[in-house]
Amino acid sequence: MFEDDVDLDEPLSLEVVADIVGARRSLVVRLAQQGLIDTVDDQGEQFVPRRTVIRLRRMQRLRRDLGVNFAGAAVILDLLNRLNEVNRELARLHQVVK
Q1: Is 12 strand, coil or helix?
Q2: 9: closest CA among 46, 33, 38, 32?
Q3: Of 39, 45, 61, 67, which residue has the fewest beta carbons closer than 10 angstroms?
Q4: Residues of the chain scoring pLDDT < 70
């Protein structure tokens, strides 16, 4: 399955996300309350965009493999995303200069 085959903005319930990543619903709720994962509100109920499942799995790997807590894992992932954005911008600018 390719990323294009899945709508990464599709909202999933907290229960579904917990099932997908093999975590308790209470953990997903706590991470959402702490602002470590994105949520969308629909008629008073919270949902999680499908792309957040990828982020949560990465956070779990950082926790398992490196012993990083979830807040630290979120910071690491945010910095990696920012670094990737900067690298893409540098590559674009490099193409313009050529």
Answers
A1: strand
A2: 38
A3: 67
A4: 1-5
Q: How far, in Å, CA of 89 to CA of 57, rounded?
A: 27
pLDDT given for residue 1 in this prediction: 47
Give the separation between CA 25 and CA 98, rounded to whole angstroms.
Answer: 51
Coil, strand or helix: which one is 49? strand
* Rounded Cα gap, residues 57 and 63, in angstroms: 10
Say what angle helices 14-21 and 51-66 make with each other, to 10 degrees.
40
- Kindly state the tokens that stand for 65: 């493999």
- 51-66 vs 25-33: helix crossing angle, rounded to 10: 100
